[in-house]
Amino acid sequence: MGFISIEQLNKTFTSDADQVVALTDLSVGISEGTFLGVMGPSGSGKSTFLTILGGLSRPTAGRVCVDGIDIYALGGEQLADFRREYLGFVFQSFNLIPYLNALENVMLPLAVKRLSSREKKRMASQVLERVGLLPRAEHLPSQLSGGEQERVAIARALVNAPPLILADEPTGSLDTATSQSIMDLFSELNADGQTIVMVTHNNEIRHYFDRTILLRDGRVAEDSATRPAAAVACAG
Amino acid sequence: MTLESIVLNNLRRRKGRMIFLVLGLLIGVATVVTLISLANALTADVQHKMENYGANILITPRSDDLSLSYGGITLGGVSVDSREIRQADLAKIMTIPNNRNIAAVAPKVLGAVEIGSERVLLMGVEIDKEFQLKKWWSVQGQPLTDDGQIVAGQSAATALGLQVGDQLILRERPFRVSGILNKTGSQDDHLLIASLPVVQQLLGKPGTVSLVEVAALCHDCPVTDMVNQISTALPEVDVSAIQQVVKSRMHALDQFRSFSLAIAGVVILIGALVVFVTMMSAVNERTREIGIFRALGFRRGHVMRLILLESSLLSLVAGILGFLAGMGATRVILPLMSETHVALHWSPLLAVLAVLLALVVGCLASFYPALHASRLDPTEALRAL
Question: Among the residues of B14-143, which ranges form H helices?
């Protein structure tokens, strides 16, 4: 069943006189529970693909449907609500808020939700424990190592229990050993049924994915799926 | 974790960033508070002085003839017609609605007397009230203390060759010259002054007075209101305001007020500009952070609220500190601007207005920066993505 269906996606960046085509007629279906790796050289459009899938950048043409929702048919504020409820982002440079400690950073997506502060703390502590960083909850990002910051970022992506995790080069700024432990963590999450889409150009972590798509010049050049999930039409 | 706690954490852990914003707004509010409280204190001071220095309402007998008087004193000497003011009626003045604004009522009787070949104007006054009203009188010797004494104006003393302590016979009644007025430059210089009952008796006008000076002050009502109220209470006399005194002093204060407001306006404008520039650069500095918030599912409205919460919190602090600074500055400046001691009045209304002013200016000036923040493209903000 196509949990995510991406149909005929086109994205062109226009700046002054230049027109850069980032994606051309890209169509992908992604089933629930997949650990998808999106790979390709720089300029292949993989980052653009992730921002569009993440509801952050409107495509020039085409549709993105997640769980039956045509996300770019939503208004701006509803799209923000969608990101909050459906997505967890893990950024390349962790992007923690420097003036909030680890626990507060994890609670960030809950800040605009109507929950008691005790409940928010409970939820954040739970995911922080899951990534093994509960003892460091009171530390500011500047007091944490790169790997620890990455774990906080993952915990923040998980705190809302989103159906989909999007990760952009999560191992980009980590050493090999730390990269491995982070990828192990993603694998565990996936084993528990978490759908993950990860963009990377690191071939060494390829073996963690259960499906790999190779992008080149904004098109799918290779897809490891033997039987790609059928694109399912958006509801409504 | 709420939007409020994000703001508080940001301000707590990044102190110093917003110091210019607080300072800019603080200086603006402090200036406004200083100027307003100075103007208020000086108004109170002037009112206090006017109560002390002289009358501003004159009550004279009704006359259909052309006036032969100037400055409250009848010229031409003797012409005191039969229509005088009954002294008993004066009690009615204190029954008017604004009676609490009446500082002093000073009745006097006037008449000419002959001393040798000289004709001199003799004025009978209520000893305590007259000298209270005319604080600018300075007397060589003693002011009047009893009915047997007389005070001579400078010119009258010279003309009659009087010295302090001299004996003077007026219509067969002896008086002792207790003091001589230093030159006032007014008609008072030509007078002999004695106590009211004695002069009434001497001139054969018991129970009547020639004119009454009233010192009335009212900062919340015009002096013409007071005049009308006294006219109603005493329908058989003429009541007129000595307008110039009040008007010129109030005019000077009004000018100070408008000048103050103009200065305050400029300073507040500069304060708003400082807030705007500071918030704008803070937003630009936090572009990436705002991108993270947006990616994590904060709505545009949430981002706006975040920025406005921050600026209103800082404005609140600036407002409170600005009020205190302004009152402090007033305390320092006030003695330099007024020779008498004027009490500094702590007005809760001014405090509330100062804080409100800071909040309104702070929020208005950071509205555009907040809007700008909410409109940032999250992908631009997260260049890494």
Answer: 19-52, 127-133
With CA atoms as reference, report the closest residue to A206 among A192, A191, A187.
A187
pLDDT digits (tens, 9 = 90+) for A67-84: 889 999 998 899 999 999
Tell whether A107 is within 8 A of chain B (Cβ): yes
Instruction: Please give the residue of chain A at the shortest CA–CA distance from B300.
Output: A77
Q: Is the pLDDT of residue B374 over 90?
A: yes
Inter-residue contact A186 to A174 (CB < 8 Å): no
Mutate to test the interface with B, among A74, A86, A95 (most CBs of B within 10 A): A95
3-state SS class at A19:
strand
Chain B interface with A: residues with Cβ < 8 Å: 1-3, 5-6, 9-10, 12-14, 288-289, 292-302, 377-379, 382, 384-385
Which residue does chain A place closest to B303, by CA atoms?
A: A112
Beta strands in chain B (DSSP E): 57-61, 69-70, 73-74, 85-86, 102-115, 118-125, 139-141, 149-152, 167-170, 173-181, 191-195, 208-209, 211-216, 237-241
Q: What separation in angstroms does the CA of B276 have from each of B12, B323, B372?
A: 21, 21, 12
pTM greater than the 0.90 cutoff: no
